[in-house]
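Lab meeting, item 3. Inverse folding demo.
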């Protein structure tokens, strides 16, 4: 498996598991019945869990773009050092993004998001 596909797999796995901590918080805050139901006046998530949920949504939205770009690189045979490095940096940028978002670390979230965006651009430039 190529480096690009390895990091696509890791990004996908990370994104697929991000729901677990904030859903556990939801169960702890609301109880199991309200967590699986539709309470009329639900108790809010803990602040960290609400931020993680927002970060998860952002990860899903960006996974769509990243995955398509990686699959185009792979299918067109455009793999090179730049695409491999972009995919590696993208993965670690997503890790930094979710951690900094969850724990409300100023500036890091924005810088991590920007790093991921520039990695996507690097893939686009290799494709074009």
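The presenter then showed the designed sequence:
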């Amino acid at each position: 498996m190529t480096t690009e596909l390895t990091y696509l797999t890791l990004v996908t796995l990370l994104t697929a598991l991000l729901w677990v901590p904030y859903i556990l918080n939801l169960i702890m805050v609301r109880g199991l019945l309200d967590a699986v139901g539709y309470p009329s006046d639900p108790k809010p998530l803990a602040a960290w869990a609400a931020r993680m949920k927002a970060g998860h949504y952002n990860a899903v939205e960006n996974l769509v773009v990243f995955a398509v770009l990686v699959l185009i690189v792979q299918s067109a045979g455009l793999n090179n050092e730049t695409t491999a490095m972009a995919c590696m940096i993208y993965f670690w940028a997503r890790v930094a993004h979710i951690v900094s978002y969850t724990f409300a670390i100023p500036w890091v979230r924005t810088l991590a998001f920007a790093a991921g965006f520039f990695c996507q651009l690097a893939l686009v430039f290799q494709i074009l």
